[in-house]
Structures are given as structure tokens and as C-alpha cells.
Fold this sequence. Notes:
hydrolase; AB_hydrolase_1; AB_hydrolase_sf; Rossmann fold; 8-stranded mixed beta sheet; AB_hydrolase_fold; alpha/beta; about 15% strand
Amino acid sequence: MDVTYEGTRREIATDKGVIRYHEAGEDNDEILLLLHGSGPGVTGWRNYRGNLAFFARTHHCYIVEFPGFGVSDPVDGHPVMTAGSSVIRFMDALGISSAAMIGNSMGGVVGVNLAIKHPDRVSKLVTIGGVGPNVFSSSPSEGLRLLQEFTDAPDREKLVRWLNSMVYDREVVTDELVEERWEAAIDPDAAKTAAMMYGSAAFAMQQKFLADADFPPYWAMMHKITCPTLLTWGRDDRVSPPDMALVPMRLIPDAQLHVFPQCGHWVMIEAKDAFEATVGAFLAG
Length: 285
């Protein structure tokens, strides 16, 4: 099975631009969408390239590249909202009625919102950190503050500080990873998306908007999720600390939680084998 970058790369035109993606796996009805997170230099491929071969053994896998991160065509609007609508457009374009989904951080929030608003499109949901409110930990977290500092005035030193906050084992942050993320982070579309999500001015506006809003936050609606849900978390996550898991674990009716020790925000990378085994069993069940 070819699970290389070039061998899996695809694109499809929609009414709001081209969505690019990676596809691998045998032809069957077991569809799995992999939804990436956010942050400097992120792409779906970089989040899941190490896991694709494993999941492609049992599922027809699609790594979806969200608009605004330098791969798929950008669209107007807030990145989290446009990511959710892009998943629906992607599924409609390929004739996918329903699929299991794995979402890393922001991708988990996207998956949760889809499961709330489009329950018929999400058969099973796996989240990797990032969903729910901070219960005991400060907000924004240490990792998000470092991300905000980088977004406001990008340089390599700030990028390294943020990358180190993403992991438990700093050896994961290689020179190659730093260079790869830096080159992608300075892409104009990616930089614009980052500013909208994590710049200090944007964060202040978001906090005011949430304070003045007359509708509940997304996490307060998680009781509406009907699909089986697996919440995965790194015990040492400094971006979305594990106390955030308490609310989704309580509110989602059919939810289970698995916490991985000696692991930061990138569970699918730092705890690769254990994560794949845990998620594989959940999807099979």
C-alpha cells in the first residue's frame, strides 16, 4: 500500500474552491476522516503522516486539509467555522454520507461541532485533546500563550518555545521539524489564519464576543452528541491541560476517556503505538 505524500495526494473542486487531501486504504464502507489541528505550520499530512499506514489497514482514510492553512484554497470566515463547513462540502463532493472521524485539537472541536449539528454524518468520533473548557487550569494555557507570542511577532526562537510546549519529550522537536514548521508558518494564508485565531487582538475580540453572546458555547451542547466518542489526552498536555476532559467526559452520553502518560498535546505522535492500538480497538468495537 502506498502511503507516501505524493502517492496519497488528491484534490477535489467544490463550490467554494479546491479542497486538497490524502487518501489511502482498501475500498470498503469503513470510512475514516482525519481532521488536523491548528498552530504554526500545521497541515493534515504533518499531523497524521505517521498514523496513516496503520488506519489504512482497516479503513478507507482521508486526511482533509482545511482551508486557510496553506494547502486547500482559503475561504472567508473564522477558521474553525470554515473547517466544519469544508468537511461537509468534502463529504458531499465525494458522496460520503457518514464517516468515523479523528480530530486533533482544533480538529476535535470541528468533529464535536459536526456531531452536534450533523449527527447523521458522524458515526464515531475520536478527539485528541483540545475539546471542552478549562476547569481548573488557567486560560489561555501556557502553550496557547506561547502560540500567541509567536503569532504576534513570529521568529524561530518563539517557534521553538511553542513547539517544546507541545510535547513531553523535547527530542521530538528536531531541527528538521522546526525548519518544516517555520517554512509553512510564513505562508501568507497560514499566517492570516493564525492571526485570526491566536493573535492577541483577535483573542481579546473573541473573549468579548463570548462574553456578550446570547447563545451557549459549543461545549455546553455536547449532550446532543449521539455517536460513540473516545476522548484521548496526554497527561502532560500544556496546551489543553487534561482537566478540560472533565466536561466532555461528563456531558457526552456515550464517551470514554483514555489518558496517555509521559505525553503532551501530540498524542498521535508521542504515544503513537498506544494511541493507534486504543483507537483501533474503539473503531473496531
